[in-house]
Specification:
The chain is of the alpha/beta class. The chain is 26% helix and 25% strand.
Length: 271
């Protein structure tokens, strides 16, 4: 018996008349499964600090609204191919994980005074960026916090090397040679909880994680045990070889590295 491919938006009961004499056809009532049930529901989860660092490396500084639009388009490329949404692919939600900017006052060793982070350009940029993300379609913002009480300024790696090989003197140091060391709290935990939650509740069929470290491995293992396809996007960043046994594949939309490129991410902007 022929059944139309598009038979409404819901599972629709189809009655077969008792007098129907088609060969091998059932009689009674059965359901035509809705077409959406065969879609691959995909959740995209983003380690925000990692993405901003790699985005700055590839595309430089951008104002908050442009960086937010760039991120949204980058995620869409995981769903959309050649300008069209492929068959059986649908976006469940984009989860973005980061930390609220700090407003703490931190002592700067070069300036010999405290710096009010709450009055910095970074503080304003971060808040504006998060506000832009809240306006993006299907974005869920998850914010942890920064361990501000443990924050300190330190020399950048490049500046330290130059200082040690005497191509740079202490008197030549500037603010640009220093970076703020400050760690995020609760962000990795939130990523792990959400991976486990959407997998256990069968809300998605595939998870694409944009990240570069191995903190997600326990949650990835659980998601795969629940039958979820787990894809990693490290944005061309090298990952440990043993990570491959805990994921189902790697896919990235980031451009190829140019010869001699090194990542130099300025604190601040996190742009």
């Amino acid at each position: 018996m022929w059944i139309p491919k598009h038979f409404g938006n819901k599972s629709t009961p189809l009655v077969v008349p008792p007098h129907y004499q088609g060969p091998g056809e059932p009689r009674g009532v059965f359901c035509v499964q809705k077409e959406e049930d065969s879609m691959i529901r995909t959740a995209i989860m983003i380690d925000g600090a990692f993405y901003r660092r790699r985005a700055y490396h590839f595309w430089g500084e951008k104002p908050p609204e442009q960086r937010a639009a760039e991120l949204y388009n980058y995620c869409k490329q995981h769903i959309i191919k050649n300008g069209h949404e492929p068959d059986r692919m649908s976006l469940y939600r984009i989860f973005y994980y980061d930390a609220q900017p700090s407003s703490r006052r931190i002592f700067h060793p070069l300036l010999q005074r405290t710096v009010d982070l709450g009055k910095s350009d970074t503080f304003k940029w971060s808040n504006d960026f998060y506000q832009e993300l809240r306006h993006q379609h299907k974005f869920a913002l998850r914010l942890g916090y920064l361990a501000s009480e443990q924050a300190f300024y330190t020399l950048r790696e490049k500046s330290l090397k130059r200082l040690m090989n005497r191509s740079l003197t202490v008197d030549q140091l500037t603010e640009a040679d220093f970076t703020l060391e400050i760690k995020q709290k609760s962000v990795d935990m939130m990523i792990g909880v959400d991976i486990s939650s959407v997998a256990f509740k069968k809300q998605v069929d595939r998870i694409i994680l944009i990240a570069g470290d191995s903190d997600f491995v326990p949650a990835a293992k659980q998601a795969r045990r629940e039958g979820v396809d787990f894809i990693l996007d490290p944005m061309r960043k090298d990952i440990k070889p043993d990570l491959f046994e805990h994921i189902d594949g790697i896919r990235t939309n980031a451009p190829h590295e140019r010869a001699g490129d090194t990542e130099d991410f300025r604190d601040g902007s996190s742009q």
